[in-house]
Amino acid sequence: MTSEEHFAEIKSRFGKRPQDLDGAWGRLVVTGCTDWATAGRKAVQNSADVTTPSIVRSVAHVAFRRIFTSHSGATHVAIDINGTAWLWGRNEHGALGTNAPDPVSGPVSLLNSSFYPANTLPSGLSQSPIVHAAIGRHHLLLVTEAGEVYAAGANAMGQCGQDDLKDLHAFKRVVAGGIGKEKAIQVAAGINYSLILTTTGRVYAFGSHEKGVLGSGKTGEYITGKGLAFQEQPTPMPVRGLEGKDIIQISSGQQHNLALDSDGYLYAWGYSALGRTGMGNQVDLLVAKPVSQFAQTNVLMRASYICCGPQNSFVIDGQRMLYLFGRWKTSGDGSSGQPWMHPRPVHEIQAYKQRLISLGGATLFAVADDEGTNNVTIGWGQNCTNGELGLGVDQRKSATLPIRVETLDGLQILDLAAGQNTTYFLVRPPHALEVLEKLRKAVARESDGTPASTTSSDVWSQLPRWPETPDTPDICIVCKEDRGETDPPLECDRCEYPYHLSCTDPRLEKVPDSEWFCDDCLADSGEQRAASSGKKRKVDAFEDQAAKGKTKAPKGKKKAR
Question: What does the pLDDT look like over 243-266, one tens digit per residue?
Fold first, then answer.
C-alpha cells in the first residue's frame, strides 16, 4: 500500500464508529442514577443507584444498535435493530414527545400506542426508521432514515425549530429555513440550542444565540427590564466559517461545538471559557474556526472522531490516540483553576488504540483495543456520586486518573453514552449471531458480514439485571412440579420465570448456550403497554421495581435454582 493509499484508508474512517461494529447489536446495560426526577438535583433520591453495570430487564430481549443520552440532562434514547426508537427518563417540558407522567422509568417504544397514540405522531416519524438522536437539557431531536428531523420538548429559544416558542409535548418536524429540503444525517444539542448535519456536509444551527453557539457571528444579547437576555432563533441557519467544508461529524457541549471535516480538520465555535474549544484562549468564537492542533500536514495528526462534554472535549486522532481539553476535574490540574487550554494527549492510556469515547456530567469514558483481549473500557472523573463509573458495589465512585472498568472486562462494547449522572453501554451477548438467526424473521437489516461476538459467556452470565424482579415462582410455571436436581428448571433471561426443558414449546433438548427468553417475553414487542383484558404484564412489574431502584444479581447458571 502506497503512502497515499494509506492516508486515504485512514481518512475513510474519519467521523465514523469502528467499521467492525457495522451490523452488530447489543443489550442495554446501565450504571449510575436511575431516579430521573432527582438526577443532578439537590433532592432526596427515591431509589438506590446502580453501582455495577446491569442489563436493563424490561428490554433484555431487545436488540439495540445505538444509545444516546445527555451530558446535561436525564432523558435517554436507544435505537433498536429495526430502527425503532425507545425513549425514557425525565419528561419535563415534554422532552419525550408525550403527555405521559414525568418521569418515564424505563424504555418505551415509539410504537407504543398508549404513550404515543397514532394521531400524535407525524407519519414521517412513525413510518421511517430512526438513525440518530440528540438530547439537550430539556429537548430531544430524532433523525429518520429519510433524512427528516423531528423535535420535542422545551422550545423557549427555538431549539425545537418551531416559531411558536411554546413547549412541544408531541414531535414536530423541523422544516424552516430550507432544512426541510435537505437530508439530515446527524444532530447535536446543547443546553438550549440544536445543530443539524446534512448529506451535503452543511451544518445548520437554531435556538439561543448566547455565547455565539449558533456560529452566526453574534451573541444576540439585549437588555430587558429583568436584565440581560438573548435572542431566540427558531429558523435553522448555516454555521458561518464552515462554508465549502465537507463536515462529516458534529458534537455539542453545554455551550460549545466541534465539527470534523472529511480531511480530518477540526473546527470549533461558541463559549471558549476554560479551554473547551481548544484554542488556547478564552475568547468566545462567534463563527467556526479551525483548531490548529489538528491542522497538520500529516493526516495521522489530524482528528478522526470527536465528542463534546459539558465543559470539555475529546478528540481521537488518525493514530487513534486520545486528546482532551477544557475543564474535566473539580480540583487540581484540569480544573477551573488549571484548565487544559490546548488539546493534550491522555498519557495514562497512550498505549491503547481508542475505539469509542463519551463525556458525561462528571465522567470521561473510552473503549480501546487491548492486544490479546476483547476490549478495555476506561473511565475516570472527579465528583462522581451515583456510581456512574460502574466500578462495582462497595468500590470507590470517583477516579482522578483513568482506570480500567473491570466490571466490563470480557464484554464486547458496541456503543456507550455517558450522561449527567448515568452511563449506558450496548454490550454484545455471546452467541449473538446464533440468537439472531433464531429471530431472523422478526429482525431487519442485519449485516451478513458481521463477525461473531467476542463476549465471554461466563462473564455475561454474571451480569446483574436491573431492576430486581418481583417474587418469581420456585417451580416450573407450566407443570407446577419440583423435579429436584434431576431436572432443574430453565430461567428466562428476562423475567426469570422457571420452565422445565420438557415444558418449553417448542421443546428444548438441552440448556441453550445462548440467551433464552420465554414466549411471553419474546412476544412483548413494546408496541402496547397493557393487554386489553387489563391484566398486568411482566414488564409493568419491572417498571414498578425500576421506580424503587432495586438491582438483582443473577443466580448463576440459568438452570440452577
Answer: 999 999 999 999 999 999 999 999
Average pLDDT over residues 6-22: 71
Q: Which long-range contacts (CB under 8 A, 24 or more apart) does 273-277 make?
A: 273/311, 274/311, 274/312, 274/326, 274/327, 274/336, 274/339, 275/325, 275/326, 275/327, 275/339, 275/340, 275/341, 275/342, 276/308, 276/311, 276/312, 276/313, 276/325, 276/326, 276/327, 277/313
Give residue 178's pLDDT: 84
Q: Which three cell numbers stand for residue 432?
A: 449473538
Q: For cell 430512526, name the residue.
A: 130
How do residues 80-96 score in pLDDT, each as one tens digit?
999 999 999 999 999 99
Residue 489 CA to residue 506 CA, distance in Å, equals 15
Lowest mean pLDDT among 160-164, 263-267, 418-422, 545-549: 545-549
Largest CA distance in the chain: 80
Place of cell 470527536: 306
Closest by Cα among 388, 292, 400, 297 to 346: 400
CA 318 to chain centre: 24
Sheet strands side by side (includes 465-466) = 412-418, 422-428, 27-32, 50-56, 465-466
CA distance 140 to 97: 8
Decide if 242 contacts 268 (C-beta within 8 A): no
Query: Sheet holding 193-198: strands in order across?
Result: 184-189, 193-198, 203-208, 232-238
Task: State pLDDT tens for residues 477-512.
Answer: 999 999 988 888 999 999 999 999 999 988 998 888
Question: All domains of the chain, ordered by start, with CATH?
Answer: 3-25+56-341 (2.130.10.30), 470-527 (3.30.40.10)
Query: Residue 315's CB: how many other CB atoms inside 10 A?
Result: 28
Look up residue 405 and give its three cell numbers: 472498568
200 burial via Cβ count (<10 Å: 0-12, 13-18, 19+):
exposed
CA distances for 446 relative to 23, 66, 80, 82, 449, angstroms: 5, 14, 11, 9, 9
Contact (Cβ atoms closer than 8 angstroms) between residue 92 and residue 152: no
Question: What tens digit of pLDDT does each residue of 276-316 get?
Answer: 999 999 999 999 999 999 999 999 999 999 999 999 999 99
